[in-house]
């Protein structure tokens, strides 16, 4: 059994992670640490976890102590800027680290500074951390000791778009991306804006034109295209707790048949990505509470564009589920272990 | 008091219309006709209208009889293809007609045939019917006897975009439009796809790349631009009953300041359109149950695009409310009468 | 035109009140005061009110200054314990006051102390303030200068139950009341418990067995029965923004026909209460965004009980709408003015 | 591996069952049969199951053929009246049967006839089928070949109430039960009443005073009390897809401490029922998508009553999950297998 620690377990992604590890057939909780709830029973602070077996109690979020706590792997479900400070002592102690924050997602520390408003906290470690979207990452990352787990919007964007960019089947210029997210994407917050009455019956754009995830999206799409990619990305909130739906418009550089073939080939044999028939559109309802991504593509002969749509659960394939998927591969377990 | 008849009052738009007319200070219900519920008390067939004063009963939807029923104006809340058959005898009898269907929205009967799969039922009458989005329509329409009321998505698209196209401040090529709609946009239907359990927690695209409203959108944007306009339009359903949010990406052909000035000038003094400060995004929550449209614009220096966002209530500013607004102007009433 | 001031307009009830007065045909806003937002434009602090005509700005909540501000009537939408301090100077200045808080609802200051945890702030004024549920209050209250507006749950309980208690058609012992409320009943709060993700898909009881509204319910039911009444009252939150549904089980002391007749007689000619046929159940959906109460009664021959069900909009018939209804009658206006 | 067949898999309970068996570590799908979708791929007819591995296709619902199809156990997720006709040939062929319908829940065929409007289809088989709520059923049922799985409302009622009735800690007279259910309780229906727009923002009672589940509730409570029990039961729909919350008022016949002790003892060591501390109320949010029941009890000294509240997921602990729990025990597997 793999011993897994989780730091920052009071947010929605952390909660999803705790649940996944608690029911994982080949992993168990080494510790659950919180900066704000140390000493408190997990089930009391988070009633949704009150059914977990045993008397799980939040331990203190002391980086050095947790590095020596005997975990095989530690998940960081912490805010950006905070995660790096925990990653360093764990990394130095030889514990494998899967970071769900933005701290190790961007290759270029200058881009980090530009989008996150502060110098990168540990550029040396950044260089050691591969960015891993498991279905798309180049082989070899499984030997890494620190992995950057992708963001939720970027996951929903890359899965449909990266194979097509790599194959040269869409033009990298002029890509327009619209995403809508359930409210849990904003985290667990005591903020009237996120109250039930304010988000009910509410659709609202935010963060445009320069949401922080844009940096990650453009860096990854650029790598796939082999050249700089600049996109228009507009996220929105919609009245649901979980789920992201992304709609991408990109100029076609090949036929629909070729594009579908590339997508099917990219995900053949993968357990979590499903390419729906063209003309069928993926629905968040079918993927929430799963680690899956459903996607499809249509072609518009009038405009010469492909329309790509994808859906994920932002807390699973967009965060905690993807982190467990990474963990499974790090430790040579079946990719789906604990995720079906 | 204006005597208003409503034909097809069992759908959501018709229900909204009945309520608006029933509480209108200067109009009253001449009749409420239904093809399926004739003879039944309105409050029994539609519990949401059960509070209306009087013993309102659905009358039969007999075109000739209704044309002679003494109404000053008749609203048609009927499916496309059906509405035209009612419009003709009313028109010939000198009754003013406000049609909420698609039958008189498109100037070109060939476009109608291409998008609606049948020849236009009355091309001669089509030529007599102006398309009226009240804030944007050219003066003079108030003397018309038959008015085509715009569709819901097209209203949300035109209000932010038409003034900028007229002023040459956005490029007419490459416009990308994403809309999300509450489920009432699909009408009142006994269809498992629209059941609560299927639409809850569900975001799904549909109708792409060639939704019927595309024809209306392109015809109107083309008129504003003075040239053909081809857009990418992708509608989606989101889990709410009412409301549309539209996000438009269009290449800037001028400064943000100029564009904001044009939008403010276009809607200065109008009671129902509000231009929010750039950087603020309109929220469906603030316009549902009203006849308003909130909109705003931001500029992205990285891509050179404007992002325009707008929100309306699809059943009011997108249907019944707009129809009453048109009626108010037809009869010289204050534009806001019965709509605040 | 009646000049109406509103103090405490940043909560949901206050917001509803501002909107009602702003569109009232025979009343207008004298001022809108806030303890937290003085000096700020109303539409900026509360985007849902951003469409109101004019440049409405919150003024300071200075009791003495507001008493001299020239209003004919002032609505207090303030927390209990705070409202009384504003009521006194207004009352002394001869301004009519409609209080939406609990401060003047209970006849007995000792009950107030027992349920609200503090001595009543102004027992003398309490004695001068009639409790007015307009459909049920004894005649003569219209000359009062200070009116206590009922709570939301108590309104939903009294409308079905009081006429039957008065007529001796239900036993006053053993009444069991279950209510469910939309989340706006908790007010506008920056509290993670009330966040969208926590209230979505959540039904949860709270405040049992001794919710504060119990005191008001029992005092009013006792007055109707002519003897002490002790009830079981269990409120719950359900995932919707607005609306209360109340289900009451009470032993029958007469026939269903007699009970229905009493209810129909009680509300004959009233504009806001509708008695549905037995076997039909009222639905919150049909009353939200209105000032109405729908109710019905069934009899269970097996248990000998009546089941009474009622629905209201907690922010309208349960708060701001009822306050305007009271105001209309205070000033001799049609009871429905501004409420249809 | 246990080979499990499912008949009637196109409803919500059936869908939940298919998913549970598909990911069960010690059971697999022998067949999935449908009366309406035979021959169609499961993932096409039910997009929410589109991710299941393999090419699952609905087979025909032929009772005799399915009895010979080699399954170890068959789940019947069929309407009442239909299930019995399938149970007989399976039973005669020696296949174990777990029936989720009402056909074998009532011990008395006359009660069945009274509540279901038809003679019981197979009284002889009825006598052979124990009613099994696993936490409460008398030992020995595991050797039965046909098991009646409890209804959703009855499960939520019995778990809090039966241990107290057995211990004589509540009075069996005058029990009042209010339940609210998510819309999936009504099944997958093409009915406008269950459409998103009609159920959104809607709370409505139904089926009172004599919902069909009343017969099952009273029979089981009577068995626990050792005497006839007549209760008041009022179910309601609330705007969520899944979940039931039940609130029970019953006169105390002992202390709160004694009652809590009885409840804790009843569920000590059981994996799916959690007794929350008195004063804490269970929340549907914490049990949806699980097989758990959370419950708690408070005492009201003013009325002498206990208030019991419980929550379950109607499709899991109230249907498919409970059926799998029963299956696990029938076959000697860990009770939680496939259910965590």
Secondary structure blueprint with pairings:
4 copies of one chain form a homotetramer.
Chain A lengths: L1 E6 L4 H11 L4 E8 L7 H4 L13 E2 L2 H5 L5 E4 L6 H10 L3 E4 L9 H8 L6 H6 L17 E3 L3 H15 L9 E6 L14 H4 L4 E2 L7 H13 L6 E6 L6 E8 L4 H12 L5 E3 L17 E8 L4 E8 L7 H11 L10
Parallel strand pairs in A: 1-2, 1-4, 2-3, 4-5, 5-6, 7-9, 11-12
Antiparallel strand pairs in A: 7-10, 8-9, 10-13, 12-13
Helix pairs in contact in A: 1-11, 7-9
Overall average pLDDT of chain A: 96
The DSSP helix count of chain A reads: 11
Instruction: Report on the biggest sheet of chain A.
Output: 7 strands, mixed
The CATH architecture of the largest domain in chain A can be given as: 3-Layer(aba) Sandwich
User: Roughly how much helix do the residues of chain A carry, as a percent range?
Assistant: 25-40%
* Strand neighbour order, sheet with most strands of chain A: 8-9-7-10-13-12-11
| CATH topology call of the largest domain in chain A | Rossmann fold
Distance between the termini of chain A: 18 Å
**How many domains is the backbone of chain A divided into?**
2
Question: Which ranges of chain A are low-confidence, i.e. pLDDT below 50, for 5 or more consecutive residues?
Answer: none
Morphology call of chain A: globular
The structural class of chain A is: alpha/beta
- Quaternary structure type: homotetramer
CATH class of the largest domain in chain A: Alpha Beta
CATH homologous superfamily heading of the largest domain in chain A: NAD(P)-binding Rossmann-like Domain
**Radius of gyration of chain A, in angstroms, nearest whole number:** 19 Å
Share of residues in strands of chain A: 15-25%
